[in-house]
């Protein structure tokens, strides 16, 4: 099955003389459980592509689908208003958009909300590590006891069990990024979007996080779209590397990485 599907996606920012063609007819499928790295020079539209998949911005033309369902601000709004809980109210909200070209098709299923990680982990500084990880669980309405169990599991997943009561500023950059990863995993989403998540880390810390991410990715069969400038990082992690060119943003090359790696 296809987890993420972009078909003929074009994105134009601005109008008239100021218009920027950020993406020009990009088509890309990410299979369930596939790890795809997007590489390319600055300004070639990597972040734009992730934002469109996340539903943070709208395509100018073309379609973006997540497990066959339309992605986009409409789907995102429906999730936010319903605190991420699937159910009849979501179906009602989706119905509001049934007249839009991208709004149909999600009448029965709740929209998929991808997890999104950035270079900056954007943790709440006043919350403990455990409470940061628990935020999505609280939004989903889990009981305090259920949250406690789940947060303890997630702390263990990212090897931070001893640090649940600490505040983000007491941790190293790599540990903070692991907290952000755990918080993203708390969404229980099948799709992970990562925009240079380890770009600010030193090489050794990045290596450790590659090992952790790879372990978690294969255990959970996540579909990952991972943006990086670092070709070595792409070769380390990816099943497939997709190269974008700029002006306009287009896919100019794709490579499947066939090198067998440990732990897979
Ligand atoms: P990358 O992530 O590969 O560096 P971006 O997706 O950030 O590329 O940007 C692609 C192009 O779109 C660039 O030319 C950039 O200047 C332009 N762009 C990105 N966001 C905006 C915006 N909000 N308004 C206008 N132009 C933008
Ligand atoms: P509330 O946020 O409703 O005041 P708590 O303060 O009891 O509830 O817990 C906040 C969140 O963090 C919950 O998601 C809880 O499960 C979790 N949590 C807090 N401390 C820990 C810890 N040391 N280990 C595991 N989970 C924790």
Automatic annotation (TrEMBL):
Biased composition (Low complexity): 67-77
This protein's record includes keyword ATP-binding: yes
MF terms (GO), sorted A to Z: ATP binding
Residue intervals of the ABC transporter domain: 4-264
Record region (Disordered): 67-111
Record-linked SUPFAM superfamilies: P-loop containing nucleoside triphosphate hydrolases
Top-level taxonomic group: Bacteria
UniProt keywords, alphabetically: ATP-binding, Nucleotide-binding, Transport
Coiled-coil residue spans: none
Protein name: ABC transporter ATP-binding protein
């Amino acid at each position: 099955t296809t987890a993420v599907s972009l078909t003929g996606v074009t994105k134009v920012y601005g109008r008239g003389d100021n218009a920027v063609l950020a993406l020009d007819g990009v088509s890309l499928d990410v299979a369930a459980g596939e790890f795809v790295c997007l590489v390319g020079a600055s300004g070639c539209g990597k972040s734009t592509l992730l934002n469109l998949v996340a539903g943070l911005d709208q395509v100018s033309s073309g379609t973006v689908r997540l497990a066959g369902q339309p992605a986009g601000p409409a789907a995102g709004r429906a999730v936010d208003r319903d605190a991420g809980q699937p159910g009849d109210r979501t179906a009602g909200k989706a119905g509001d958009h049934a007249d839009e070209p991208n709004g149909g098709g999600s009448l029965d299923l709740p929209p998929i909300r991808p997890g999104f990680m950035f270079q900056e982990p954007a943790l709440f500084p006043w919350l403990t590590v455990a409470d940061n990880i628990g935020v999505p669980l609280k939004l989903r309405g889990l009981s305090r006891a259920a949250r406690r169990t789940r947060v303890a599991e997630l702390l263990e997943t990212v090897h931070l069990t001893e640090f649940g009561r600490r505040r983000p500023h007491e941790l190293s950059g790599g540990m903070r990024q692991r907290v952000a990863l755990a918080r993203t995993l708390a969404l229980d989403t099948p799709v992970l979007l990562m925009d240079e998540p380890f770009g600010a880390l030193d090489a050794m810390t990045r290596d450790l996080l590659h090992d952790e991410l790879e372990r978690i990715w294969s255990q959970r069969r996540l579909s990952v779209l991972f943006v990086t400038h670092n070709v070595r990082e792409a070769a380390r992690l990816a099943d497939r590397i997709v190269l974008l060119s700029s002006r306009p943003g287009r896919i100019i090359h794709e490579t499947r990485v066939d090198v067998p790696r440990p732990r897979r």
